[in-house]
Design a protein that fits this description.
The complex is a heterodimer of chains A (316) and B (305). With 316 residues, chain A is mainly α. Chain A has helices at residues 2-28, 34-38, 45-55, 61-73, 87-122, 127-141, 144-158, 176-210, 213-220, 225-262, 268-277, 281-309. In chain A, α5 packs antiparallel against α6 (127-141), α5 (87-122) packs across α8 and α10 (225-262) runs parallel beside α11. The longest helix of chain A is centred in the last third of the chain and has 38 residues, at 225-262. Chain B is mainly alpha-helical and 305 residues long. Chain B is built from 15 helices and no strands. The chains are: A mainly alpha (316), B mainly alpha (305). The interface between A and B is large, with 50 and 43 residues.
Chain lengths: 316, 305
């Protein structure tokens, strides 16, 4: 187990390095440079060149890269172009709201998806199955922004039950119910997509397991159908689902970009859009890196978790 | 995967001649079509998509007005003159809805074509040659898979400039890793099959073995993946255009037709502006996803008998 983890960590190092290179190249394709943005237009050209020299912007690109990488390793992500605060501070403030939103959506999405997916697989090709298939595809196919706008139109504008956006009402930031009210609509938007996807996964995974020999044995023993599905089949069917969840958590964070924008939710997704609009490249670079690291970490974590849940898997 | 070999080998071992010899024996293609027809949602999706593609091609003949023409009344509700009303500038919405189908089709097909080709080549080379080539290419794939797609796409679009062509290229150049992994898996399992080995013994050139003997047998999963990919690309384009980071007005895209609905006045008092394009996106994406599901069932070698 431990050698396996060490080997996986060693493989992750070149990938991590590659991620930083790709990130650096992409941001460097951007027109202009930080000096042009900082100083006022009356500064003389000589002074600008001097400042560029000091900041190392005249160095070859690979020198700049290692300079930047050195700072990164020391935890220095640079300063935001728009607020002049350290990037790490700007991002840290945004992580909490995004995590609240996505994890709540994931849990609710799974709670909806599990029973529907199970029913859909057990009663394959029945009316329930067709209904579940149709609805789940609907959940996958509706874009977040359209669903979000539709929900705002119905629940915030017409019925006026729920707020149209933001994280809390001004003045009642500590009110728990106020927070919940603000969470409902954006969580619903994300949960619909997640539920749609996982109904498909659960159904496919369970169907695969239901055809296996050990379940025929269970049936031959005279076990009740409900015991067979829920106790014997489900355990094995859920293992691949765990992997998919693990692999998708980081992508959920990216997927919340649109939802956060529609609902003015002050998370990392909204920060991404704001940074793009203000051409705040240090913040964008850090956001991209952070999410890429989370993907890598999630991959590793899922692989390790997998070996705990499935005793058939042995790592050497 | 082992099932994949047996199922697909049939396709190779039964040349069309057997059809004439045995009379009523079905060819694999006939079987696939028959199984696809059983998936009613997929058939409905295909008919709908055929309709949309025709609309996209013949947009100038179908549309009642000109897409960029500005009329006297702006933000007008639906009427006999303007079937879906006019937008905030005074352009006919029904006409723009028709023209916008072109954007979605071009982005969906273009982006997926680009990344399917790149992914197939990378995956085939990686799986067939193995060794350090495989290691390098797969780590590269890992690198590109590490970035959450929408965030990376947004950043790259903002740097290169938002327009139709850039979006197709960016989606195409960033989407290949999943196809590459898929193809690599198929190639790995196919390269030890007898007909490939006999090709090697016969002294056929490597590209010929790879592209004429292995890849045709790995096409099924690529096709399914590509179909779902088209649906995903259409959603991404719509989302980008909605955010103002995609296709720019005056060119109409279903996504940018919804941009104005971010303001509460449009959202509340002019639903004809944003509901129709939203419904079009849902219908088209749904139809393509159904087709993908039908193709997956029809091409699944496990049930191909």
């Amino acid at each position: 187990m431990v050698p396996y983890i060490i080997r996986r960590l060693l493989i992750a190092i070149p990938v991590l390095f590659g991620v930083t290179i790709v990130n650096f190249i992409i941001i460097n394709m951007a027109p202009g440079n930080p000096v042009d943005m900082y100083v006022d237009p009356n500064t003389s050209q000589e002074l600008l060149n001097l400042r560029k020299e000091q900041l190392g912007l005249n160095d070859p690109l690979w020198v700049q890269f290692f300079h930047w990488l050195g700072n990164l390793v020391q935890g220095n992500l640079g300063y935001s172009f728009s607020t002049y605060e350290p990037v790490s501070k700007v991002i840290l403030e945004r992580i909490g709201p995004t995590f609240q939103l996505t994890f709540l959506a994931l849990i609710i999405g799974l709670i909806i998806a599990l029973p529907i997916g199970i029913m859909s697989a057990v009663k394959q090709y029945s009316k329930i199955d067709y209904l579940a298939t149709g609805t789940s595809f609907f959940g996958i196919s509706i874009p977040h922004f359209f669903l979000g706008l539709g929900l705002i139109y119905i629940f915030a504008v017409q019925l006026q039950w729920l707020p149209a956006g933001g994280m809390s009402t001004l003045g009642s930031e500590d009110d728990f119910f106020d927070k919940i009210k603000h969470l409902i609509l954006p969580v619903m938007v994300l949960a619909v997509g997640i539920a749609g996807q996982y109904v498909r996964y659960v159904r496919a995974s369970l169907l695969e397991v239901l055809g296996q020999d050990y379940l025929r044995t269970a049936r031959a023993k005279g076990l009740k159908e409900i015991v067979i599905t829920n106790k014997h089949a489900l355990k094995n069917a859920l293992i691949p689902i765990i992997t998919i969840i693990g692999l998708e958590i980081p992508f959920l964070l990216g997927g919340a970009v649109i939802t956060e924008q529609v609902f003015q939710w002050p998370g990392m997704g909204q920060l991404t859009i704001q940074s793009i609009m203000s051409r705040d490249y240090p913040t964008l670079m850090a956001l991209n890196l952070l999410t890429a690291f989370m993907v890598l970490f999630a991959n590793l974590f899922t692989d390790i978790l997998y070996s705990f849940v499935d005793p058939r898997i042995k790592y050497k | 995967m082992p099932m994949l070999e047996t199922g697909i080998k049939n396709e190779v071992e039964i040349p069309p001649i057997s059809n004439t010899e045995l009379g009523k024996e079905e060819t694999p293609l006939q079987l696939i079509v028959k199984r696809f027809m059983k998936h009613r949602l997929a058939v409905a999706g295909s008919i709908f998509m055929l309709f949309i593609i025709l609309v996209a091609i013949f947009a100038p003949w179908i549309a009642p007005k000109e897409p960029f023409q500005v009329y006297d009344e702006f933000s007008a509700p639906p009427s006999a003159e303007h079937w879906l009303g006019t937008d905030q500038v005074g352009r006919d919405l029904f006409t723009r809805l028709i023209y916008a189908s072109r954007v979605s089709m071009v982005v969906g097909l273009g982006a997926v074509l680009i990344y399917s080709i790149i992914g197939t080549i990378v995956g085939a080379v990686s799986g067939y040659f193995g060794g350090w080539v495989d290691i390098v290419l797969m780590r590269l794939t890992d690198v590109f898979m590490s970035f959450p797609s929408l965030m990376l796409i947004l950043v790259v679009v903002s740097i290169l400039g938002p327009n139709l062509l850039n979006i197709i290229w960016i989606l195409g150049l960033l989407g290949w890793p999943s196809v590459a992994r898929l193809v690599r898996g198929s190639v790995l399992s196919l390269k030890h099959v007898d007909f490939v080995k006999s090709g090697v013994v016969l002294g056929l050139s490597t590209p010929r073995i790879l592209f004429q003997h292995i890849l045709p047998n790995a096409i099924a999963p690529i096709l399914v993946q590509a179909t779902f990919g088209i649906a995903a690309a259409i959603i991404v384009e719509a989302s980008l255009s909605f955010l103002g980071m995609g296709v720019q007005p005056p060119t109409a895209s279903w996504g940018n037709m919804l941009t104005d609905a971010q303001s509460l006045t449009v959202l509340t008092s002019q639903p004809w502006l944003w509901v129709p394009p939203g419904i079009m996106i849902v219908l088209v994406v749904l139809a393509i996803n159904f087709i993908g599901d039908g193709l997956r069932d029809a091409l699944d070698p496990k049930t191909l008998k």
